[in-house]
Amino acid sequence: MKRWLxxxxxxxxxxxxxxxxxxxxxxxPPGAVGGCPDSFHLHMxxxxxxxxxxxxxxxxxxxxxxxxxxxxxxxxxxxxxxxxHKDNNLPR
Length: 92
Prior knowledge:
With 92 residues, this protein is α+β, with helices and mostly antiparallel strands. The protein has a domain at 28-87. 23% of the residues lie in helices and 28% in strands. It has one helix and four strands; from the N terminus they run H-E-E-E-E.
């Protein structure tokens, strides 16, 4: 019995680590079709006025699937802040 206890505990510990790592991603809210790739965050789409664009740039796609959500990544390069938009199309 003792011979099986240590390997069983090791397997149990490894399984809990892998399961918690796999479920650590960003939660997808109700109504959103899919999620975002790593380093992107889910944001609601909105209309932007000219004043909103005064201090940064927006590049990429909009809400192609029409669910009201997009994936956004904020990048700063050479002193310019860029918001990269990508539609949220990763499966749940």
